[in-house]
Amino acid sequence: MAYINFKPTDFFNTLLYTGNGSAGNAQTGVGFAPDMVWIKSRSNAQKQCLFDTVRGVQKVVYPSESSAEVTDAALVTAFGSDGYTVGTDSDINGSGWTYVNWNWKMGTTSGLSGGSLTPSAYSINTTAKQGIYKYTGTGSTATIAHGLGATPTAMFIKTLATENWAVYSKSMGNTKYSILNTYGSIQTGTAFWNDTSPTDTVFTIKDNVSVNTSGQDYVAYVFCDTPGYFQQGSYIGNGNANGPMCFTGFSPAYIFIKNDADSENWHGYDNKRNTYNVRSLTLDPDQSIAEYTIADGVDFLANGFKLRISASACNGSGATYRYFAWAANPLIGSGGTPGLGI
């Protein structure tokens, strides 16, 4: 059973809001000062937008696209102690449009050392074991110190120029990579991670343009398996509405899932848009389309999640899937107190 001495909502939380189309639209109620904010319109086909305090306000990268970082004064204009403020851009604040935002807290911005490539800026959280790193590529195999005190199991890296996202998952191994902004299957290639797994001190990048071209700037979002808070894992589908159960040790707040082999979109579920089982409302990280319903979907349980869909999107017979899951409540909380479940 997962035992932690903090609340998952201290470091991750999901909020819903309705845009008003006006500048200075403050979104509060996150519960902490967010360092990473991922926003998506639920009601309209708008871009997935990802912001962070390391790159700074008004700067966005798009999880659903290969396009370069954009600086726009109508985007997130300020990070606050309990949320952030949005401008007039319809990707994040269309009048009367509904939105979801997923928020992460990092916080420590000094003291990082080690590795052969030093980030130009970073923000890390050694309790939740998650971090953001901005670095400039060298074009040669390099190691980057992450300072998290645990081994990363998930990494999402984007050059700030035009190029695909690179995704590392412990469950698929260090010889493979996937692309966040496409629905393609996982690929094999040594040029991403140099066939080298992360350690509890560094992660390794080789010379693919998606992770390490000389002179290009990059941002990396890094997460470690943390009992009661985050887990990256995999499962094999059974093609049945009575699908596999994935034990995480916590009730999920947010999960997204990818079929490893098939040309299926990434699928994302959370506990705010879907407030009861079966959770059937999905937003696909690799698409700009509006929120839609997948028949059946996923049950969020007190100790993990269970697939209720029989289709290849999340549960094709014999197919392998990867998942990334953040917690709402641990199964066992501080002092051995049972978590609150779903």
Could you name the ranges where pLDDT drops below 50 across 5 or more consecutive residues? 333-342
Q: What structural class do the secondary elements suggest?
A: mainly beta
How many domains? The number is 3
- Silhouette: globular
- Number of DSSP helices? 2
Estimated radius of gyration:
19 Å
Write up this protein.
The strands form 8 sheets. Strands 10-11-18-13-14 form a 5-stranded antiparallel beta sheet, with no helix packed on it. The longest helix has 4 residues, at 90-93. A hairpin with a 3-residue loop joins strand 7 and strand 8 (83-86). With 342 residues, the chain is an all-beta fold. The chain is built from 2 helices and 26 strands. It folds into 3 domains: 8-104; 121-224, no CATH class; 232-334, no CATH class. The chain has helices at residues 90-93, 190-193; strands spanning 12-18, 25-28, 36-41, 49-52, 59-60, 70-71, 76-79, 83-86, 98-104, 121-125, 130-136, 142-145, 152-159, 166-169, 176-177, 187-188, 202-205, 217-224, 230-236, 245-247, 250-259, 267-270, 279-282, 292-301, 304-307, 320-330. Helix content is 2%, strand content 40%.
